[in-house]
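Q: What residues go here?
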């Protein structure tokens, strides 16, 4: 099984397929908890694939990233000062090497909650238990039943992966023990053609069309 290893200053640019963000809002966070009246921060927005979905659910979405992707504003989440309670939600797919630090920083910023998409193995580790989970247990760990393939630097609808992913959510005001929930199969329902860059159009010429001369010669030669 492959494992991602990145240098410490790597952007860790693995864009989130939009259907996986819709799954959070449709299947994980109770719908009464977010509305068009609320403000959301996406502090590691990359090329904006998560932000564009969040904009369908929140009234205001602030998009920032430490690196340049031609989307949002430049800001290093680890260095930028924020007022406590300055956003309702902080939602992102953080760089994995900084995921624990992102959550610790996001918790005081969020009035209502924090949600991160992470490899399921994020919930392992003595270090994360000691530093984060023991003092700030998430309200929900929502495991994808389907795989969420992510590819470096681009969205690829046909990619595959052996890695499991989960949404890990801290809902403010919840004192219940952490709930493990499953995100039901939903990719087919939540995925849209327009989520992906248009594939280069290729004309497929069938034997029948060729025989019956339904196409100009140039089209046939360009197969
Ligand atoms: C896994 S990608 C996710 C991108 C986007 N959130 C999405 O879901 O499509 C992680 C992102 O974190 C950004 N990043 C890395 N370190 C950062 C930091 N210190 N502050 C803000 N963004 C950072 C990277 O540039 C990259 O865009």
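A:
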């Amino acid at each position: 099984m492959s494992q991602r290893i990145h240098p410490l200053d790597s952007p860790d640019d693995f864009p989130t397929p939009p259907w996986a963000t819709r799954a959070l809002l449709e299947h994980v966070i109770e719908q009464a908890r977010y509305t068009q009246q609320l403000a959301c921060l996406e502090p590691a927005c990359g090329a904006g694939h998560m932000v564009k979905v969040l904009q369908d659910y929140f009234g205001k979405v602030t998009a920032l990233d430490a690196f340049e992707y031609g989307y949002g504003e430049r800001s290093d989440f680890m260095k930028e000062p924020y007022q406590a309670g300055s956003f309702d939600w902080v939602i992102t797919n953080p760089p994995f090497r900084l995921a624990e630090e992102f959550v610790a920083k996001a918790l005081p910023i969020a009035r209502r909650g924090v949600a991160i998409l992470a490899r399921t193995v994020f919930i392992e580790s003595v270090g994360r238990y000691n530093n984060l989970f023991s003092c700030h247990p998430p309200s929900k760990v929502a495991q994808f039943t389907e795989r969420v393939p992510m590819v470096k630097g681009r969205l690829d609808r046909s990619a595959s992966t052996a890695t499991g992913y989960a949404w890990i959510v801290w809902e403010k005001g919840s004192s219940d023990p952490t709930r493990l929930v499953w995100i039901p199969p939903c990719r087919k329902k939540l995925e849209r053609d327009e989520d992906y860059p248009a594939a280069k159009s290729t004309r497929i010429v069938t034997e029948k069309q060729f025989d019956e001369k339904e196409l100009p010669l140039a089209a046939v030669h360009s197969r």
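A: Context that may help when evaluating the design: DSSP finds seven helices and eight strands in the chain. The CA atoms of residues 129 and 135 lie 8 Å apart.
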